[in-house]
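Listing 4. Sequential folding, example run.
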Amino acid sequence: MSQLANVLNITKAPQPSCQAQRLTASKSLSARQQQELRAILEQGLPQVAQPYLAIAEQINASPDQVLAQIALWQEQGLIKRFGLVVKHRQLGFKANAMVVWDIADEQVDAVAKLLSSCPEVSLCYRRPRRLPDWRYNLFCMIHGTDRAIVEAQIAAIVDKFALQAVNKDILFSVKAYKQQGARYTKKGNCHG
């Protein structure tokens, strides 16, 4: 788990109980309630002790119905990931490095698996090269409180996996831009 993830208790949305699943068979959310739920989820969970209860009250439903609908959307692939947007700078993580790697295409999956196994790596993904200007095809993110520590972590990763001969660049962020999850409803209009 990354240093940042250790600070937070990041978990998936709670799974509905068997009872909630049975309830939704006869009391599923209306199309309007589903639209309202999508709009609310796009804004993030309410910062209250019982966020699913608060959402249920907003859309005139039960918390079990809300949880069951979220679980159904996850099963259907409509929600691929249910997580939080972390404002890491506000938590003291100001040394944030995107390490971009130029990995041979046939080795990308293997190297990505190695990098992903490192607790300090919070994100690792492949992107297409944009030749001739951008040769990098593997990206990983490391968040830290001190630039020197992050650089030492990267050096340790390079040594551990014998990546000294691999071209890479370390891009430290200098500014945090707006962070938010995906948006699918029009602003101010959750009714289609």
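-- end of first protein; second protein begins --
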Amino acid sequence: MKIAEQFPEDLERMKVCLGKARKMASDSDIALAWARYSDGLCASWLSLRGDDNVLTETLLAYLPACAGGPKRAMNVELAESLLAEASDLGIDVSQAAEAGLARAVDDRRAELWQKENTQAIESSNAYVEQHGLPLEKYRVQIKR
């Protein structure tokens, strides 16, 4: 079952939000965008936020075809055996390639962010090691 078919109410709400923003995208592109967003937060599919404006902004950020310009055709060389298996499994190669490229872009952005913020992260970690968590005394201890 495709992920868009698993969450029809979510998909419908996302389409309405995009429509209000005068943007259009296919069901599969919308589902892919939300899955990419969810995956970035270590989830397969996050529950939708309550605020439609925040939902719309999130979708636009993860839906390049909707937020940016038109798509462009390009030649890519792929192994014949992989293409044959994808075809047998009903996989849309263009969509899978776009999803893979989007994931690679996300991963590279995260890697660059990590590099750019290494000093701040190390400083924060050193502070916590030396002084503890700033609000530690307010933490609730759960007994199991």
